[in-house]
Structure of Centromere protein Cenp-K:
Amino acid sequence: MLGQHLQAASSSSGKGTDSTFASLTALLADPNLSIDVRLVERLQVAALQEAVRRQVTNRNSNEEVGRAGSKKEEDAEKDPYTRELLQALQEEKSRNDVEWERIREGLTRLGKVDPSEVGMDDEEDVWGASMDDSAVERRQEKSLRDKELQVDMLDAEIKALEAEMSVLPTSTTTLAQTIDLRKDLYASINQFDDALMELRARVERERQSCDSDRKLLSDLQAVSQGLERRIATEKEKAILLTPEEISDNLRNKITRVEADLSLLLNTLISTSNGLFTEANARMGAQLRALLDTLMNKAWDTPADPYVDVNRRFAPPLVAFLVRANIALEHPNDSRRLRLANFQLPAGTLS
């Protein structure tokens, strides 16, 4: 169908302006017409040929009108028939201009291809033979403006679509609601798991602290009960004993301590004599002197029973007494010794 219209347009291009514009107008007005790019280019060629012919015709007509303007005016004034022909020609020219604008708008809307960009050889010949450089430049400028306008229109459409998408309501389908609900539940479960783990660790620490406090409380209660019994016993003794009896008890304790001390000294002397031979008599004398110094210090100043042994006594003797649990080192100074508490049970000499 489009080929028939093109043939009609080509064949009518030499017969007259009315038939050409009528064919092109009918072609563009056909709603069932399917047009591809190649056929649009052919249609543009036909339209360009018609435009060239009209331009040449108008130029010649203008020249003839310019040369014989005065004569035609006189003839028009004298001949009513000629005046009517001129008026009809002017009306036909205006109508053809309007039709030509409609065709150009239709071509631009259908093909969106500028006539100056047609790549066929015969089109290039037509352009080179019939159009000057100024016409080509004007058409190129118009094509550029049209394309810029199309780009602006596309940008406006994109912005409108983005605005519509931004105000679209959220999905209210059951599936979307279920997915959102599961996501929220999963996040809540993870938060509760973390909080539960932290609470369990805190409960474990509090349980351990509570067990330690209970054990300490039990020990303190036992100590408190022992002290209470000791106080009650001492009170009973103080009530029952007279001052003379208390004095006698103290003298008896001192006598027992002196007897134990004498026995201990004799035991230590015999032990030192057994450990050291006559060749090491000097070492034995130093051992007895060290023991005597420790015992005297413990007896004279019970609050500070430590003795400085850094330079006065041989280090092997000091190490021997420490290993034998006879003497104890100072917690903060290993150069100071004190006598062990022999009156305490085994394992509690310190």
